[in-house]
Input
Amino acid sequence: MIPVTEAIQIVLQQTPQLPTESVSISHARGRILSEEIVADTDLPPFDRAQMDGYAVRAKDIANAPASLKIVGESAAGAGWHNKMNAGEAVRIMTGAPVPAGADAVQQVELTREIESGSQVEILESVEAGRSIVRRAAEIKSGETVLRAGERITTETIATLASFGYAQVKVGQRPRVAVMATGSELVNVDEKPGADQIRDSNNYTLAAYAAQSNALVERLPLAGDHTEELKRQMARAVETSDVLITSGGVSVGVYDFTKAALKELGAEIFFERVALRPGKPTVFARLGKTLVFGLPGNPVSVAVTFNLFARTALRAMQGATDPMLAHERAVLARDIKGSIDRESYLPAALRTNEKGSLIAEPLKWGGSSDFVSFARAIALINVPAGDQKIAAGSVVRVVHLPN
Output
């Protein structure tokens, strides 16, 4: 067995980065940037009003109330582009350019128009700079605002649009084939017979891979037959960057996945990891295709995919942070670890009244208990050798993708 950290490093070392491509901003969400995004303008591009009111000179209203002559109006998209002089005010709307000569905006609630709207009475004084966002206060033209390797999120779409990136360069999406093995499996729309179960792994793997921005093909179920496994694997590697299988990687009489890979001439990098759950995890290369042979139990599939396969898929796209995000949390109750394996145990997260992050271990029945695991949003990482960790201890948690 090799440690989890060593297994992840091997995955990263053996994972090639795919070429880049240009996509429309409309199809960019979720993709990994392969170029720096640079501001082509100051933001804001002019001194901007933060609220509706009147642009004024602060010293003109130092002894408020004071009456000023209204000389114009500045609205968003239709600014007033003259110079404002002493004793004057410009009616202004939120987001509008502040006219030259003005150094403050007084909110409309502290004013009232008089003389049939030709003058405004400013009821309270205001200091210079009030309610104005200065030009380039947020971003200066030429600054890098997003970096290659970042994931484009819903929130960063506005950044791309604001600086003119109608097309953006991103890493290509990996082509992934997923395949579940085991003679006990039947399709999801079939009624299981005696000693049979419905396949869930194929759908779990496909969903996780799609969530990692891969182009996914679900292969037909493969029974416990080496020749059938070899045939499907050989076909999959012709068109896929990554093949992910589940089941058949332990040491049982009917575990044929490793045998099929070896007979096809695959280069196997590791086949056992000091991990709970998920010890019998295989990582290999067949031709130019990376192969992840994951265990058959559903929770083991979820844990090993997110630790290893997801890391590879994101690294292929050029992500600077391909691994799961992690942080520290306070343990809500006692948990048990393993003498010789690192544990990743399902958990819910919450914040207590003091603002501390609390990790709540889920009660689950082991690596086949996918119903309990469905409530997990994180995994509690227990180092090998820690057979028990007490409630109140600070532990490392890794976030499952959502």
In short: The helical segments are 4-14, 157-162, 201-211, 226-239, 257-263, 298-316, 370-373. The domain at 4-19+173-316 is CATH 3.40.980.10 (Molybdenum Cofactor Biosythetic Enzyme; Chain A). The chain has four domains: 4-19+173-316, 20-42+142-171, 48-133, 326-399.
